[in-house]
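Troubleshooting: if your tokenizer reports a length mismatch, compare your output against this known-good record of 323 residues.
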Amino acid sequence: MSDLEPSAPLQGPAESLRAVGGKGVLELLPGKTVTLGERMQVHRLLPTLGRRMVGPWAFVDHYGPDDISVGDGMQVIPHPHTGLQTVSWLIEGRVHHKDSLGSDVSFGPGELALMTAGHGISHSEQSPVAHPRLLQGAQLWVALPDAARDTAPAFAHHADLPGFTSDGLTATVLMGSLGGATSPGTAYSPLVGVDLALDAGADVDVPLEPGFEHAVLASSGSSVVEGAPVEHGSMLYLGTGRRTLRLSAAAPSRLLLLGGTPFEEQIVMWWNFVGREGEEVAGFREQWEAGERFGHVEGFEDGERTPAPPMPPVPLKPRGRDC
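Known-good structure output:
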């Protein structure tokens, strides 16, 4: 998925619900609405003012449920990426992925579509011509550490993912490990990404890695996390140091748990690129505009690609995860 508003201002300060000594925090990140493609609207949770990353997770868009029975649904034409992984997760609907490696895959709910941009890749994401009525999901980016950010691009589709059940909870592990289940997705930093489906009346403790920082996104319905209500489309930052997480729900709901070792490297993230210096990112933009580095996605006419926006008027500077 493409960040079509790279120069848009970040939202205002997040609301800190409660500080818990030695057990992290509860910091609500309500997000902002962004238009994707021609008409589709998404809710952007990361990056936001004061919270740019959660572990290596550097970008979180949530969308839906959207009724796309009339219209084309998601239509994101070829665009480039470097220095990151995209993690695509659907709750409802289907998406057709094509990329410059020749990958041509349609995926649906419960399936992991994992693209490693590395040195450079371009791809498209579209609702199939014949598609389900509803579309709902999340698009996530993982910043690659410096040692891996120039790795060869790759794409993997995992239709079957591991998980576990407990006290009204069904967990599906997208990335990393939780509760004895380990995702087949390749990761380059210690991280975790888990879909948590709660039954009505569920009240359960979920184990966490205390060395990770975590956040939860209310991807469907509303839940209560450590006593704090989290409404649909909102994300709650949890800090570090937690060994368990208390979850409950009055009605069926879904949460997306994201976490990882705090990412200590400073990065420049602009448009669809993750680099280390502003000049490097400007070079990526020039290469995309020149038709270099990122390859070609078959099935699109010459010139049918997302143009890069102008560089911002001020220099891009490396930033840490909290600024």
